[in-house]
Amino acid sequence: MTLPTTETLLLDKRDHALFITLNRPKARNAMSLQMVHELMATFEAIALNPDIRAVVLRGTEGHFCAGGDIKDMANARGQLAAKKAAGVDPFFELNREFGRLITMVNQAQQVVVAVLEGAVLGGGFGLACVSDVAIAAADAQFGLPETGLGIPPAQIAPFVVARIGLTQARRLALLGARFTGLEAKSLGIVHEVGETSEAIESLLQTTLAQVKRCAPGANATTKKLMLAVGQTPLESLLDEAAKDFSAAVSSQEGQEGTMAFIQKRKPAWAAIVGTETPVATAK
Q: In CATH, what is the architecture of 9-211?
């Protein structure tokens, strides 16, 4: 597997997981366009890699992500006249590119685990809402500050609604509310809350151990099925699910799972692969 060279991310493969750390600490890991592109390149690189079964997203120096980079907005404003003359809207392209990223993360075949500390705002909030498992610090600061800046949470809103429902999403977005990791759990944004860094690390390791117990192909198929709920007519969805079930039962993975159960042993995918193995880091 070849991972992209990155400047705004730290990439580190450990056993069956790829740790992606947002690395712009001076900006509280705000999401620049470069970071968006580097994240997209990373998820594209691992898209069909069965050795990467979990992706851990977190941020450096105590913050997850403080939202979009204001410098990118300023650059887009400076390019506005010239690009509009050429038929291009730089604000549209800047905003829509983040939507492409968040959709890619949402649909990743791996189990995406978000470790949420410090600022979890705007785009960072959006990433939290497309994670499969979210672990938060009790004092993490969540919020959708966009409306207070005179803009809508345009690419984030659909994923927030899907995560917690329309009524709570409306309240959070229309009030620009700020709240802690504890309230985020009560709302269903996060699944686990740790009071200390040690507790957060323990929750993360438990989650990764649980991922290892599950077959990677079955996980990928299950995630695809669940994401299709409400998007595909039910009868068609159930037909497709039955086809996936049949293919899984007769697959090598399905046969291994059945034999492991009969023989009262762990399946091959649950074996301990090894220790931490760095693959790539920022330049």
A: Alpha-Beta Complex (3.90)
